[in-house]
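# step 3/5: fold
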Amino acid sequence: MQHLFHHSRILHNPSSFSISTMSSSLTLPSFSPIFLPQRTHTLKNHNFPKSRVFATISTGSQSSIHEASVADYKVSNAFLFPGQGAQAVGMGKEAQSVPAAALLYKKANEILGFDLLDVCINGPKEKLNSTVISQPALYVTSLAAVELLRAREGGEQIIDSVDVTCGLSLGEYTALAFAGAFSFEDGLKLVKLRGEAMQDASDAVKSAMVSVVGLDSEKSSSCVMQRIRSA
């Protein structure tokens, strides 16, 4: 899976299983676990029957549980899907060798109107890093990573054991698709619109975005205020 996500890693221990990247951090906002007590869909066949989905929506240090029964739920295995910023030229390379993964890119090309896999593998970096491209690229590549895992020995059992799926920002859409909340195609259409809207907003006003990992909120706020005062 090293070619699917550059610098990606699969973490597996008795209490959790996560697909994540070096740039991901659980300290970032917009981290929403989606509980899957009765997950019945199969991504491989792109067949998503309705399943019970419970979501915890976090805002800062505050969180709300949609259903009280989830509050005491004990997680055994979880998938964590990355957000924008985890993309790198070369990701998705292995997808060509797994039909189910390659099919996701083929469907994506029809929805997006361009060869997404070519951009993922060959770049250029500036194009892949653009919001309008990187968001659908990460959504599709993340789900393709699931198919690569499924194709490996023991992968199907690992996927079937997942009872919680999570996402960082954009990764929430990937998590919802994996959970069967909506189809791969509908999720990609949402991500496409999301990326286009955010790209338009970015182009309208001179701005920049920074991902902060490892600093607490007080230190982060101090750095921001210093930058504002020096501007």
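# step 4/5: annotate
The domain at 8-206 is CATH 3.40.366.10 (Malonyl-Coenzyme A Acyl Carrier Protein; domain 2).
# step 5/5: archive (pending)
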